Amino acid sequence: MEKVQLGHSDLRVTPVCLGTMTFGEQVNEANAHAILQHALERGINFLDTAEMYAVPPKAATFNATERIIGNYFAANKGAREQWVVASKVAGPSRGMPWIRGGSGDLSGADIIVACDDSLKRLQTDVIDLYQIHWPTRSVPAFGGIYFKPDHDAAHTSMHAQLEALAQLVKAGKIKAIGLSNETPYGVHEFIRLAEQYDLPRVATVQNPYCLINRTVENGLDETMHHLDVSLLAYSPLAFGLLTGKYDASGLIGDGAPAEGRMTKFASMRAQRWGRPESLNAARRYNQLAHDNGLTPTELALAFCYQKWQVASTIIGVTSIAQLDECVNALDVKLSDDILQAIDEIRWECRDPAQ
Questions:
Q1: Domain 4-245+307-332 carries which CATH code?
Q2: Residues with catalytic annotation?
Q3: Which end of the chain has fewer CB atoms at under 10 Å, N or C?
Q4: CA distance 183 to 71
Q5: Domain ranges of the chain
Q6: pLDDT less than 70: residues of the chain
Q7: Average pLDDT, the chain
Q8: Cβ contacts of residue 264 below 8 Å, gap of 6+?
Q9: The pTM is what?
């Protein structure tokens, strides 16, 4: 696989990134290690994790994913050097009291402690890309669509967070920094502060991007293009909706896939991916795939792989077979006619999973 540079950083990664939020919930440790090894064999050099994982988040699996990855590195000599490792510090608590006691803030001190803890769990001396998982500001994310100024309570400033990240860079604990679930304003402000005060420059933003959520293209893509910030696209298969597995049955009920994320976890169905409009739109795209001799997975992933906005697409899998299917989709090239048909569906359905 050809590698791409992430923003202004020295990091070069594959256009497919192995997402690991299933490790410790849907995937046990032995199978997770097998997936990691197979991903290397398929040419992937980039993995993404977070202190919050596994997903769906809960106290019992908090930090589990990083521990599983750390055990893999410890058991496989030389494996760590083959990976570009990204992790994330959780933002203010969103109904998760097990994260920093349910704090509504993310201070510079919190960032430093969280990074040190992630390094221990990952059993490594350095995290290549360290990201803020979601902003301290009250922003429309995780299904919210409106900014509400009166909800924007006092919080640690971006400047203070950047200063903490700068300490970690100076100490050699992280190489580059990134954001996640961020807005155009947030990206601009982090970059402005970095340039004004000679602090680390944001290299990446990890936001949702898929056929039923293309809100990145509503302004964030222009910001990232002009500021040379790379997009890491998460949920390219919309939590499974864009695989076609729910087309006939719906998310629950007779025929729904028992091990499907949306079937198995009620908390997932309560989010943006569980909206009736999201499933209805996904069915439209999935039928377009079938009409053109493609699987829904091939259409959805080829779309992300082909878009200029995306540097690397994060795939979350529960088996080696799923991993192979996702990597093989790199060879699929969508015609101009298919891309036009995709845009026509979007014009009618917009972004129901935003």
A1: 3.20.20.100
A2: 53
A3: N
A4: 35
A5: 4-245+307-332
A6: none
A7: 97
A8: 26, 258
A9: 0.98
